[in-house]
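Objective 1b: paired records.
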Amino acid sequence: MPELPTSPNENQTPRRHLAAERVRAAAMEMRASGDLLQVAAVLYREMLNLGILTIAVTIEFFGAAEDPDHLLAYTVYPNPRRIGIGWTNPGTIELGDDAIGSVCEPGHFSYWKNVRSQRKEIWTHYDPPEAWTHTKSGLGFDRELEVGEWPEPRVTMPADDRWHVTHVPFDHGSVAFREVEYIQEHVDTVVELAASLSLGYVRFLDFQRLEQHNQQLEIDRAVERVRSEATAMRESADIGKVMSTLYDGWRDCGLVFLAGCINIVDSDRGRYSSYVLVPPGTLDSAAPKLLVEEDVVPGLHLYRSLELDLEFARDRGWAQPDLPAALWEAPVTFPDDLEKLWGHRKTEWDTLIGCAGINVPFAHGGLFVQAPPGHRYEDDDIGLVERFADAVSLGYTRFLDLQAAEARAIALTRTAATERVRATVMSMRTTADLGDVVALLWKEMVRLGIRTPGCNIVFLDEEAGRVLEYMALRNPRREGITSTSPHMTEYDEETLIHALDTTLDEYLVEGPMTYSFTLGASRGSILNKWQEMQVWGGDFNEDVVQHVSTTLGMTGLASWDKPGVGTAVAFRYGKIGYNEPTASADHANLVRDLAQALELGYLRFLDFQRLEQQNAEILTATQHKSEFLSRMSHDLRTPMNAIIGYTRLVLRKARGVLGDRQVQNLENIQTSADNLLALINEILDLSRIEAGRIDIHREPVDLRELTAECVASVAPLLRPEVELVEHLETAINIETDPDRVRRIVMNLLGNAVKFTERGSITISLHPLQDGCELAITDTGVGIPSEDVPHIFEEFHQVERTVGPKREGTGLGLAIAQRSAQILGGNIEVVSDVGKGSSFTLRL
């Protein structure tokens, strides 16, 4: 910044200062580089008002396009419309009735490089006449100026068009102005104006950097929202929410697009799915759903609705002029090498209709975005889509992991059901206990999602030639239906059991045959099915329904008189049969597992015993934990208090006797012991609250005095950058437990102190109609919105991605909330990340 010279005309000084302030203010109000012409216009007007009769003013800025040798020149001239002249150059901009402007980009011309590298101070030169002629031509005036004619009446034109040019440098460039002759006072004035311009421009650059930072934060937040939404997926249909969040993120980040899609390749299942989202309003909501045709063209898969064609090829993106305003999944089978589509590099290309598109492959597919016709994507756009693709990839990988975990959970659920059946089989003592087995088997099948009104188990004793058939079915008493069969008993309110002991021959010819669907079949064909452990089925038609109803002694059995499909699952000693509306191979496999439980139940019975033993051990461990917590007060607190007490005693006498390191070790012992005691007290306090063993001693309490005492206790812990503000003007007396309230207030104040590094902590106490309200508001780090609902849960701590990690057990707020509720009140919290939190205690 050049040193400001003293003007010989002191009367001009106040006017110069005011003009400089207006120039600085104009520069500070800039929001984009294009606003520099307006700033140049302000500078031009102020110079004229101060008597500097210049033909034009130019602000020369160096360092454009992040190149220190690059230059942009913003020049302002008087408006030629004053004298009836227009212009043809579209780059000439009208800046008001009195001025026009243009932007020149000399770039890396050696002349301007010399200006940058050699001219560090004020320098002057004469413009040759041809330079001024070139300037007038560049402005595109629609007629020639007459000799001495100029739109600014205060300026006298030299006859020879010879101008004296002065360049006044500042931090980021220089101000150039043309006069007929060099006047030192004018130069001094422009020096002051240039200094103000520089100050404002620095502020503008700071604002630009802040804007870029905020834009990056917005991108980070948008990417995180997509990642969170993808991570939260529970089923494939939830990818619609991911696409919606992705659409909002692209829009918020300023990405120009016509449509976008997530393409997923499932190599395990041999499927390709395209999830497409386009801006709303481009297709009627009643449009038909997408249909799929495969291999319409070799190497292509055509997604077809009744109104549009959407194509996908290995080496291209998909494209369509009129895309639907809908989200769909279009799964198709694909060749083995189709998944190689996603192995190529991240690219930007033209799609089938000539629109630009960006495709970014990730581990399980690709993310594609298509531009409107005529729009081209830049490297920044590709980088932005890459970030979103990474977020989708991370979230989708998490979803696949969750799916695998859910599959394992379903398998565990099936295993548990199988174990319960096996355990019941192993607990059998007589054949009469088969009723328990078949009742449990039916209930487990229903619990696992098989919509069957009943099931039966057939046990075969081939050597004795006898069959035991047990059937469990839903109790039809609610429908007013009873059974006349002597073999029917009511197992419980929900279940009837039909038991039949017959010969194999009678069963094959006259038995219910409910699930074999081979009435009149030969003995050998049925036995082969059972012994080979086959699975077979057939229609549960009206003849079968009538036969079953007659055998069971029931008529009008609503649960059985609907057509369906029957399935029989054989095991080595018989079969399990059931019927459902439609056949399901998955259900048949599930029942096969249950059938194996019947067969192998005894071997698993020992495993079940071990499981029972483990459960007993867990129960014993839980009881020991409860006993440990109840004894902790004496067994842990008493010796801990002794450690703390003796440490303090030694510390008082050790100072001046022991060395600094020994004293520091003692202080560390005391601090650690205090922290451990606080943890023990919190755990004990919470356990007493949960057990309902808290004694409340209510008495009149002056809350203003109690709060002031708490504030005084934490004041020494405040950082120097934090101001403590108290609004405790009103005395409030209520009937409550002072010790419990003091702990609540100290906990809330302690949290505010811990998480506030600068700013203020405000404590306000107000009376309410039926109580009082104490608010503690800080300007700390704040709490993320997703953590606010859980902030009062035991052991919950907010994960901090930035800043130092704060120590704590996660019990303080839980104890405070429980204590407030015991006292008949509650604590509420409002928080904004980066701005602070407000905890309000109402009693």
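Objective 1b, second protein:
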Amino acid sequence: MSSLAMPQEKKREYARKATQKRVGSTSRKPPPVEEHLDQFEVKKEIEKDTRVFLKNAMKQDRLCATLDDAEIESILNTVKFYKFDKGTPIIQEGRLGTTFFVTQTGSMEVSVKGITCNTIGAGCAFGGLALLYNCPRTATVKATANSEVWGASGVAFKQSLQQNATKHQAETLKFLDAMSIFEGLTKKQKNCVAEATFSEVFEDKARVVTAGDMQTAIYFVKKGELAVYSGGHVKSTGEFVDGSEIGRLGQNDCFGESQVVSKEPFNITILSSGRSELLCVSVAELKVILGDDLGAVLERNAISQGLKKCPVISQFTASQRSELMKWVVVKDYAASAEADAGARIIIVLEGSVSGLEKEKEVKLQRGDWIEDEALLNSSSAASSIKNMKAGSGGARVAMLTRDGMASALKALGVSIANSAEDASDFTRKMVLAKKVHIFRHLSEEQTKKVVESFVTMKFAQGETVIEQGTPGTSFFVIANGELEVFINDKSVRRMTRNSYIGERALLFHEPRTATVKVVSDNAELWAIEKATFEKIIAGNMQQQLMNRIRLQDTNFGLKDLIQVKVIGAGAAGVVRLVEHKSTGMRYALKRVKKVDGEVPEEVQRECSLLKDIDHPFIMTQVNTFETKKSVYILTELITGGELHGAIREIPTVLSRAQAQFYTGSLVIVLEELSERNILYRDLKPENVMLDAQGYLKLIDFGIAKKLPEGESKTFTMIGTPHYMAPEVMRGHGYGTEVDLWSMGVMLYEFVCGYLPFADDLDDPTEVCTAVLKDPLQFASSYKDAHGKTLMKGLLTRQPRIWATDSYYEYCVSQQEYSNTGKC
């Protein structure tokens, strides 16, 4: 078939099969800066009229549109005045952007690779995108007439955008925290709702809501005061008259939340008393983010948060708690009505409940919970919760009965134990055992044997768990705490909860190869004796474990490796296949040259992150070596090639099963990174390798970032535009959820054969515009309804699916993976 005869979609599909790779803004060598501007600077004070002119121009720029006057002023305080003669370049394609410009007089043309593509006149702002993106200029701007231009500091420009976003987020979270309706939302969910809020200003006597109106938004008073009226009516002129004032709402007050749940219209009218500013979140936006039945969703979140607080239930993963939720019963009780006697967990959703716990009186208010000490007890012992009754105003409670708990545990593959204490301990160990990667091949019975063999050991800070050179008799799983591993007194890694140590001596009958000490205040470890361990370890698990152990052997240097051949080369460095002289173990060795005697920042960042990650779907970093001129990174050898190449070897688009397999694997990886608060930021087929069995291995953490404790956002615009989420481009801050957008782009590429946005574009500015504005459309040949639903959720520009606790849970809820399981 000739290309002229192909329909457009088929052309795109064949184009996908080409070898073109999308490249992000990760250049190691900084491009030239805009030092040429100094020669065009003219000393000039900014006058009042000019300042107003520049403000108006900046507010027309999409990057500055959300800035308030104070933030714009902070940018204007850094401006310099420039004069350019006709024909003079103002910015040059390929140079690093350091200045944000506003034209006062004159005209300019914009060209890309020598081809004119736009013009700029007086009152236009330009140059901001490259600053935000931290990338070279993507176009040349040249004066076509004598022109006067103001240029502001790029640092001040980016700081103002970030400060604006941070301030808005803080104000909005304060608004959400003040509303009881949002009590059940997680921090991540609140951040998503915060993204959907907006400010609205009302002048004196303006109506905010009118009696009889249906609910359209929830409001929070940011500034000013509101008057609340009963009765009255609205004249044909729009004036409200004859109402009786019954109250006032001031700063930090909120209203409208009760109507969201009740779905009843307002029975009051609220007017602005003087000028007021309100923060609002529309009901329509909330439905997009949380679902159509807001009352049910918010109630479900309240139950979920209550379960997280229960000591036993808190040990379960998000997906396991989701299974428990299916067995929770919600009931309404009239005043003084007695609650069901079989309840083992009670969470108060509305009203109050009182009764006895361990024969002591307790009273529970909204949001409180109580857990029976015999929650998991297999005996018929009476509950420690007795005589629970609703308060004078009645109560709405969520309950989990003993039978419900038993059914949930059975569905999860967790058995009930013989005593409350044993049950709690057993449940925690089963949950944790299932998280340890080396146990993933075990059957349910084998996992139980592991758990039954665990012996709890507690250590204080500074204590030695195992010592290098001593015989090994036990294998340890870290239940709580942080440990540091030393080889020959040199720290090589830190290990946290769910990691394991001591396996080498058990399998290979060798002395301990490292010393492990407790660095946290204390640590709790679970130990399995050698004899039991050897009985359990077999088959796939033994093979995988032995391979992981060999990768952890770092007690050798470059001189112990033989170079076999070059297996890759690029701008970042050369990758060679190497072999250990003694063991025959093969690795990949990447050499990166130092810049001015220093290891490049992105290489330092990648090594730092990979050092502490141990996951079967993430490339294992074995060791790093430094010489005077280079740094060498030794990793596991991945022999299956790039996913980018693999999907292009398939003559058509990927089948449903293939797309499910690859996307499901990515979900597992991203959930792991999210739990560690790590943003990958450059997810694309080129950065995914395949191992010998065809499983995914995520590589290249050069622009990944671990968010500091307590932070949920970063602002740097970085990555590959075709796979980049809109939040990254807007400059208002983003979190780990942006990697799910990239996964959505990859899924679309898998099943449609081309990219969803800007498939035929390469200019970063044009690509960003397409990602921000173009509609999501599917190939006419793609008919999978569940797949479309999932991709619409992943590729929405609204913060919808990011509100879920579990990435995998969301994907399963869309039924895209329902017939194949988790992986």
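The CA atoms of residues 80 and 751 lie 51 Å apart. The longest strand covers residues 217-234.
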